[in-house]
Amino acid sequence: MTKRIILLISNGISERKQAYHQNLSLNLLNARRMLYETVDGADPTQTVRRNKLFNISGIRGMYPQWFLANGDDDIIYIGDWPKISEINDNDDIPAELRSSISGLVTWDMLFGEVPKADPVTDDHPMKRMGSYRNMYY
Fold first, then answer.
1. Nearest to 39 by CA among 67, 60, 74, 59
2. What is the DSSP string of 34-45?
């Protein structure tokens, strides 16, 4: 089973900090060309999925929330934007120092098995969209 990133967002978000973190999350995923799936917590057709993710994280009404899925029933909560930002920044730590830091998690350690999209070039249909969201899911 292919691992995938699920990002719980809300298109009806009004709290500025959460909206900012949501945009940063989407930008990071697109910059890294990660294939990912979004669940819109404000979409009434996605209420069942949203509630399932809320139950997994134990946190309601906070966006964005990052999950790693290995199938439909094997989903783990990774964290919120500050946690993901830290994981992303850990990639900048020199490799020779990483082993000396207990509990260090890097992007590749966590998301290394998640498929990436091919680069968007020339006449690729996604070139103007700038997003790999739900591209293959």
1. 67
2. B-EEEEETT-GG
CA distance 132 to 29: 8
Kindly report, residue by residue over 7-25, the tens digit of the pLDDT.
999 998 889 999 999 999 9
**For 37, phi and psi rounded to 5 degrees?**
-120, 140
pLDDT at 128 over 50: no
pTM: 0.85
What is the β-pairing status of strands 65-69 and 75-79? antiparallel
The two tokens of residue 130 are 């700038």
Rounded-to-integer distance, Cα 32 and Cα 83, Å: 17
Q: Is 133 helix (H, G, I), strand (E, B) or coil?
A: strand
Q: Which of 6, 110, 113 is CA-nearest to residue 64?
A: 6
Residue 122 has pLDDT above 60, yes or no: yes
The three-class DSSP label of residue 68 is strand
